[in-house]
Design a protein that fits this description.
- The chain is mainly beta.
- The protein has 2 domains: 2-60, FAH (SH3 type barrels, Roll); 69-264, Fumarylacetoacetate hydrolase, domain 2 (Alpha-Beta Complex).
- Helices cover 10% and strands 39% of the residues.
- It contains 4 helices and 19 strands.
- A hairpin with a 2-residue loop joins strand 15 (190-195) and strand 16 (198-204).
- The model has no long low-confidence stretch (mean pLDDT 97).
- One of its GO terms (molecular function) is hydrolase activity.
- Its EC number is 3.7.-.-.
Length: 266
Amino acid sequence: MRIARFSVREGSPAAGSVSFGVVEGDPARPESLVVHALAGHPFGQPQPTGESYRFQDVRLLSPMLPNKIVAVGRNYAAHAAELGNAVPDVPLTFFKPSTSVIGPTESIAYPPFSSDVQPEAELAVVIGRMCREVPLERVPEVILGYTCANDVTARDVQQREGQWARAKGFDTACPLGPWIETDLDPSDLAITCTVNGELRQAGRTSEMVRSVAELIVHISEAMTLLPGDVVLTGTPAGVGPIQVGDEVAVSIEGIGTLANKVVKRG
C-alpha cells in the first residue's frame, strides 16, 4: 500500500485541505493514479473517507511530519571511504530537525553559509508505533513503511565545524517522498541519485554495513521512537556538489522517485 500526504488543488470544494490517502494505479502512468483519502492518520487501521481524487488534482506533501529524524552516517563502506573515513565500530547517529523536512514538490534552498552542498540518496524508515528497546525479531512490527529521502549536506560546513547540526539540519535539508510504501522488503533494493538526469549515486540497500533492523534496535536502545518518526539509513558512494538550478532525483526500487529543484535561498 502506498500512503501519501497531500493537499487538494484549487478548483475543488476541498481545495487547500490536507489529508493522508492511499495511492492506487501505476506510478509509471501518473494519469492512472487515484488518491483515496483517509480519515485521520495512517497508523493502526486506516479508514477511508469515501473521497477520491485524480492524481493531477492533488499536490503531494512530505509523506510525514516527523517528531524527529534520526540519521545514520557511514553505513555504506564505499561512501565512508570516498570521504576518507573508516566505518565506525557502532552506528554513527545524528539528528535532523523537523524543520528541515520538505516534500517532493518543494525546493531545496541553497544555504548562504555554504559553497559545497551535496545530496545523499537514502532509504527512509517510517515508524508506525511508539516503541523502545525493540528486539531484533520484532522490528517489523514497529515499521509503518519506507520512503525516499535526501540527506542534503553542506559538506564544507560539516568538515569545518566537526559536528553536523548546521551542515545537515538547515531548512529544506531533508526532502522526503513521494509516499510511504508499506509492503516492501528493504534488504536488497536499488537506490540511485541523479542530478539533471546524470547518474551520481548507484547502490543497493544490501550494501549497508548494518541492516534496517539492526539500526532500529540500536536507536531504540537509547530513545523512544514515536509514530511518524523517520530513520535515515545511510547513503551509497558517489556524492558530489549541486548548484542552484539543478534538479536532484532520488529513486528507490519498489518505492518511486523523489525529485526536488535547487534554488537560491530567498
